[in-house]
Amino acid sequence: MLTAVIYNEFRGFFFNSMQASYFRRRLGFQAAFEMLRRQSGRMVNRSYSATVGAGVVKSVILQAKIKRSARSAIIRELDGMMGSSFTAADFQQLFDVLDKETVRQLPPVRNVHHPKLKLLQQLICHKGFLYIGSMVATINVIVISVEIALQDENVANDSKFIGLNVSCIVFYCVEQIAKIWALGWKRYRASRLNLFDGALTLVLLVFIILTMFAATVNNWTTSHATQNPFIFLPVYDLTRIINMLIIFRFLRLVTLFETMAVVTGTLVDLIRNLKALIGSLVVIYYVFAILGMEIFKDKIPYPPGNKRDNYTCGSYEQLDYWANNFDDFASSLVVLWDVMVVNNWHVFLDVYSRYTVGWSKMFFIAWYFTSVLVFMNVFTALILENFITKWDRRQTERNEENLDRTPAYLVSLHNMFRSDLHEPTEEELVREIYNHPHIHHLRV
């Protein structure tokens, strides 16, 4: 209910911001059209033409400093309209292609002529091959979980688990080599997921070799009572890194399920489209970090020497949180992050109220209210609304017969509010342009 109330209040402000942003976007396109219309030099009855040729638009787009993907999308649209002219409405509609998801033409799969190799290629390219790899990754994660649960057992168990990890990593290597052979290098690298799998597998292979080498050297130095020359390669740390990489490999599983893929795409879209909200959170972090340094710097003294009293269980001192303070900017950010995410906020409230005054709790309450109750709830609500919007659009497109011919729209913030946004008329845009002091000389 709190999320709904906060988001309902925020959505009104956010909608006004999106309406203003949408108007500025349309205004920019209209201003570009007006400039092209006059600079094209075409006069009809002592007045400028109301249209702009497609060739003029294309020449300007080729010289404009815009993203390569955006330029390619616009040029593709223009190539199908060469010889025609653009009105203001057509010009606005042309740039709507930037909101569309451009489907890249994938390179063809390599040709294999031998019948048996052709069958093997079909098996590798089949989606079932991905499910087999995901099943192995799932088993690998289960093994890691058991390994962590039994990490206090003897070394023999560790050797068995390392052997299982090696077997799984060998399978990952064979899987990627088979994909490169079956798809061909051009088709393989065209998929970011393939590149992710390949890079992760390569890093896993390097770390497992380092782990085996470090374990061998460690056993040899222990048996011969000599100093380990590779002390900077502890087996325990290398094993932890390998476990984390394997878990990252397991995350590839989410792309095999449509709902999870939509959720992942939603998060990516939000990160791309919510730069302003994330920037606001960065500013809030900065302000509270500076304020915390001004109020609490050097307020918690570190115990002299090696003195350790009998501290209360669960307290700041007993948990050895001495590094989490407001003595410098980096430490301040860590404390704010702990209060925001980690479930130990009460530790900081207690220690700063003891070493300063009870009113110091208001600082942490204000931070918790701003970061968690406002920003995190708004972000959660945006994820839910964005997911619902994207899922509904996908279901609608699936019911259309020409799904393959119609590019899917990206769920940008403007598209989320598109049904409620007011579409400015050409007269409103032209009036706003001519009201600008630098555009007076363009008035006809």
From TrEMBL:
GO CC list: lysosomal membrane
Ion transport domain residues: 128-387
Keywords, ordered alphabetically: Membrane, Transmembrane, Transmembrane helix
Record field: transmembrane: 128-150, 162-183, 195-221, 241-264, 276-296, 362-384
Compartments where found: Membrane
InterPro entries per UniProt: Ion_trans_dom (IPR005821), TPC2 (IPR028798), Volt_channel_dom_sf (IPR027359)
Topology relative to the membrane: Multi-pass membrane protein
Highest taxon of the lineage: Eukaryota
Major subcellular site: membrane
Keyword Metal-binding in annotation: no
Name of the protein in question: Two pore calcium channel protein 2
